[in-house]
């Protein structure tokens, strides 16, 4: 532990906080002017396109301070944004961070949040180039904008899926959603499942590898459950799909902690959300290449379904029987 | 008035709201993929640099629903962001909008907010390319990221002011701050002052004209009061400056409504904030060119001080006496 001063946010002030944050940023060479002017100035690689996405995280909606320690919250707030650039096959570069901070929030909390944010930034070669800070009357709000780039031919959209393509997913599904349900029930949660919820890892390298090899016809990151998120691919591609529930990849820990429930609770894997894995489609002639490409990146890739020419997403069991899940992914407002 | 359906946000849902917003967006040709994928894809003009800025507006911190009708709130939320691109001499292009929405907020409010946002987007040739929507437990939060571009040689930073440069400001100062003080006191407010507070106009065309003519050595938009904001230019340029309080440009309405106060309340113009005018510095050999350039754009430009080689910002009266203002611009947390 580094020695911490007992200074408060009020004593530090807005510009003190900005200086404190800026002092810890080491800009990437693409950053011409970073934090400190009216706008940041950055240079794109000639020929590449700009990729941009934004996410807002609200206290008691997206996170609870009782569950998320500030360091992993800082990590997650950037990681989930980077996941959106990964889902396009893009290279993440620059981030903007806005914080609305309750005046009674300890300065240590912000320091730890920024340490986590910066750690993920360093891991993925992302530079914080700007943002906004203000006082909040109602809980902490974190708004992150992420920017990246990619050559136009390598960008993978949601709209490229074709009938008879395989539907794939990286890693395992349902871990984060099951951990959340255990937190909500006050049950003890296994460390590895909790880590999937609190500290997700965006799949940047494998997504880039798929993009550069031209293997993925469509791609999305799984944040609202694979059923809903594959549904977005289907809608944007003008196709449908069949997901084989028994093929959904489950972690050993997920299987272990749910073993005494009688049946496997596939709903967490299907509709749980916050997996931050990649769901993608690919020609069925590329199966071996995909497995090899994923393996090289240290990530599993599992075939979980088939794209259909008719619309609608059907979930089937091993014997081909359609099964109905209790809900269709997370949806704000409803 | 267009006929409005009595549908609610809960009935519409998150994706319904996004579709409703997207339907009203006409993308600029630089937008390759707009709303609806994991990230937006846009193309920069070859040779130009990317300019990026972000602002967060919180209910009861930055705005009150009692004072800001949703239409002008939508206008202002984009206008203040565009002002940051203007302050760099940049061309605004693309915006991301995140909304955290209280579940009881009428859908009409969001519709009107988006109409205002879109109106300013159209006025300044900006395309909404993405964002995030979620449910808020505590008031409306609006987070806007704005992106623009400019050739590297034309970008105007805060850091280019030189000793003996003139300090200039566009338009008039203090109108918005005086209107805010009247709202806070429950006094009747003149329409023209209120409009400066609720519906500010970013100075894009005159800023671009200054940048393209190479006239401004440093520039900033005045959001925290000219004393504080020129202070940022001074700090970043390693210089200081003298501001002549009697030369600060005041609107006729400001002079009229403050006429019975005995002395002119210069503190609104000096430290009030939310003017969204441009403060810039320029060689004293360019005075005539600046006045002509501003006139061509339909904006006044007024010389209000001189850059000094020694640090610190001094405010002087007509006879050269230093005067002390009651505070030093708006600062969150303190």
Describe the model:
The structure is a homodimer of 334-residue chains. Chain A has 334 residues and is of the alpha+beta class. Chain A has two domains: 143 residues, 60s Ribosomal Protein L30, Chain: A (2-Layer Sandwich); 159 residues, PurM-like C-terminal domain (Phosphoribosyl-aminoimidazole Synthetase, Chain A, domain 2, Alpha-Beta Complex), CATH 3.90.650.10. Helices cover 33% and strands 24% of the residues of chain A. In chain A, the strands form three sheets. Chain A has a six-stranded mixed beta sheet with strand order 8-10-7-11-9-12, sandwiched between helices. Chain A has a four-stranded mixed beta sheet with strand order 3-6-4-5. In chain A, helix 4 crosses helix 5. The longest helix of chain A has 17 residues. Chain A is globular and about 65 Å long. Chain A starts with 8 loop residues before the first helix and ends in an 18-residue tail after the last strand. The relative contact order of chain A is 0.15. Chains A and B meet through helix 1, strand 2, strand 3, strand 4 and strand 5 of A and helix 1, strand 2, strand 3, strand 4 and strand 5 of B. Strand 3 of chain A pairs antiparallel with strand 2 of chain B, so a sheet runs across the interface.
